[in-house]
Amino acid sequence: MSDQALPGEFELIRRYFMKGAEASTSDASAHRPTRGVALGQGDDCALLLPEVGTRLAVSVDTSLADVHFPRNAPPEAIGHRALAVNLSDLAAMGARPCWFVLALTLPDDVSEPWLAAFSEGLHDLARAHDIALVGGDVTRGRELSITITVHGELPAEGAILRHGARCGDLLAVTGALGGAHGGLRAWFDGARAPDDQLLNAYLRPQPRIEAGLALRDLATAGLDISDGLLADLGHLCTRSGVGADLDEASIPLAPGLCEALGAEEALGAALGGGDDYELLIALDPRDEATARKRMKALGLELYVIGRVVSKEGIRGVDTKRQGWQHFYAADSGGVL
Ligand code: ADP
Ligand code: MG
Question: Residue 32's pLDDT is what?
Fold first, then answer.
């Protein structure tokens, strides 16, 4: 990608990942870590101050080139997405994001413009959620690898957990499904338009932090749908010791998905596609109106897609679609 050597490790960190006091003052987009940060980057550890009485929610995820995203995806989207998938885990618990650390492995062909765009995508999303980058590590390696650990805060009794769904609860999702899969498919078909809705659903997912916070005290159980609706609903059911009756006609399909894939495949993408990063929650039917109202206040919609039942297993849809993405990955030449 570049025949120009990158600057040394420390200079590279200073230029692109140290957005606090030590960063270049010419960088107007600098994200200044403040909230709960006693000491940010520059020493051996960051020193952090969680609010008294809160619990720390901690989660880590690795994104690998050509495994979790196409290596030649826009670098700004790679940065955005790597943080977004981590923030989604905090959203799933109903946690408020606070801090993150970033471990990067960079191959030799990474250029400075690539790094600049990558860090911009990352910092933009960090700023949008008021989350501070407080440390990290940079190494050289054969494959591009991005590991992010996020920290969030929760009240002592407030987390949305995978267990707790009760028979009679409604099952609901926080947004339309299948868009990410449609976008990945579009990427392989050569789509590159910056305003392509499906492509953006895949490349620039929006973690449902606000929805998680708004639904935290109403959800009896929940998680994010990163592995696909059916797979993740399966996790929720197993952990809660319940089953689910879905209403296929109520499953919200991403805008443009049917047109792009046809009705049959669109439904498959929504059920088994993965990477949508919406939340799936169970809630008491008596809380439905409140939940809808709170979502509406955020400009979001809550889609009820079924009900929790005592009989184990998922009914109402073709559960064989669960492995759908894997077939697609094979079809696409094993690139992803
Ligand atoms: P050490 O040798 O103690 O591991 P490093 O030289 O790796 O320290 O890092 C120096 C400082 O820069 C540390 O405070 C570290 O947290 C920070 N840092 C290193 N890499 C990154 C990164 N990718 N993003 C943010 N901060 C980083
Ligand atoms: Mg280090």
Answer: 54
Q: How far away, in angstroms, is 8 Cα from ligand 2 center? A: 13
Residue 315 neighbours by CB under 8 Å, 6+ apart: 243, 244, 245, 246, 309
pLDDT digits over 182-207, tens only? 999 999 999 999 999 999 999 999 99
Write a three-state SS string for the chain: CCCCCCCCHHHHHHHHCCCCCCCCCCCCCCCCCCCCEEECECECCCEECCCCCEEEEEEEEEEEECCCECCCCCHHHHHHHHHHHHHHHHHHHCCEEEEEEEEEEECCCCCHHHHHHHHHHHHHHHHHCCCEEEEEEEEECCCCEEEEEEEEEEECCCCCCCCCCCCCCEEEECCCECHHHHHHHHHHCCCCCCCCHHHHHHHCCCCCHHHHHHHCCCEEEEEECCCCHHHHHHHHHHHHCCEEEECHHHCCECCCHHHHHCHHHHHHHHHHCCCCCCEEEEECHHHHHHHHHHHHHCCCCCEEEEEEECCCEEECCCHHHHHHHHHHHHHCCCCC
CA of 44, closest atom in ligand 1: 3
Which single residue is written with the structure tokens 């990945």? 184
Residue numbers in the chain where pLDDT is lower than 50? 1, 3, 21-31, 33, 323-336
Pocket test for ligand 1, best of 10, 13, 37 (most atoms within 8 A of CB): 13
